[in-house]
Amino acid sequence: MPPAVLFWSGGKDSALALDRLRRAGDYEVVALITTLNARYRRVSMHGVREALVAAQARAAGLPLDIMYVESGSNDEYIAALRATLGAWRERGVDTVAFGDIFLEDLRQWREALLAGLGLRGAFPLWHADTAELAQEFVAGGFRALLCCANDAFLGEAEVGRDMNAEFFATLPAGVDPCGENGEYHSFVWDGPVFRAPIGFRRGEKIYRPLETAPAMAPTSGPAIPLPAAPGPSATKGFWFIDLLPT
Fold first, then answer.
1. 57, 137, 152, 213: which could form a disulfide with 235 (CB 3.0–4.6 Å)?
2. Any idea of the CA torsion for 41, 43, 48, 50, to the nearest 10 degrees?
3. CATH number at residue 39
4. Residue 233 carries which DSSP code?
5. Rounded Cα gap, residues 58 and 33, in angstroms
6. Radius of gyration over alpha carbons of the chain, in Å?
7. Which one of 122, 146, 178 terminates a domain?
8. Pair (110, 69) in one structural domain
9. For residue range 128-176, what is the model confidence (pLDDT) as tens digits?
10. What value, to the nearest 5°, has the Cα angle with vertex 159 and ends 147 and 50?
11. Chain centroid, CA 156 distance in Å
């Protein structure tokens, strides 16, 4: 099988993508690539700590290649992306996989960048029905929790909830089952892609209003960078739950 690397957020979409890639057998996933905020050492949009993402990679039996981004600027991200993927190309990897489901413009941007590096993309979840993906996630034995909620769609009570059949069945009307409109982000701690569950405990819940600059240290609670708001919306901020390794 040709080798591939998979971009890994630690959430349900990347876990489902890894599961599908392994079951299909078209590629051998040889590493996970994660983007972390260099200052906070957390997944940029999920707020999950580096130690927990590293634990996921160990449980998946794969090396973790961390791409640290300091300022969050587009130029910095592209430079880091080119350097990271160029290094994998030199090691003989020519396929990069993503857990994207929709967003045609994002896929086109990814494929154009990859082509410039002599790489190609793989999108195992592309255009899948998100309600069916949620069912696949639960039926496959994955276990996860909601780690970040956009307050235009979900509130404090949902943060930290187990993402089981009841969770998906009780999502408010208008919320995509897979959070494809930026409604929420998730942390997967068990499932068929792991050799053993990830040890963690739930910490405090934190609210970050949009006007809080991500580069600034918070006045209280752990430092968590804000995700980008999904365009014009009623979003005022984001709820997070701080997950602690055990």
1. 152
2. -40
3. 3.40.50.620
4. S
5. 13
6. 17
7. 122
8. yes
9. 999 999 999 999 999 999 999 999 999 999 999 999 999 999 999 999 9
10. 20
11. 20
145 and 84 within one domain: no
Q: What is the pTM of this model?
A: 0.91
| Two structure tokens written together for 69 | 């981004």
One-letter identity of residue 47: G
* 190 shares a domain with 115: no
Tokens 């240290």 -> residue: 217
In 38-172, the DSSP E strands lie at: 42-43, 64-69, 95-97, 120-122, 143-150
What is the per-residue pLDDT across 191-225, written as a single tens digit (0 to 9) for each? Answer: 999 999 999 999 999 999 987 544 433 434 455 55
DSSP line for 169-209: HTPPTT--TT-TTSSEEEEEEESTT-SSPPPEEEEEEEEEE
- Domain of 225 in residue numbering reads as 130-245
Residues 70 and 169 in one domain: no
Query: Which residues does 86 contact at the CB level (< 8 Å), separation at least 6?
Result: 117
Burial (CB count within 10 angstroms: exposed 0-12, middle 13-18, buried 19+), residue 148: buried
- Secondary structure element (H or E) that encloses residue 17, with its range: helix 12-24
Query: Domain ends where: 122, 141, 160?
Result: 122
Strand-strand pairing, 143-150 and 237-245: antiparallel
The one-character DSSP state at 232 is S
Instruction: Break the chain down into helix, strand, coil percent, rounded to 5.
Output: 30, 25, 45
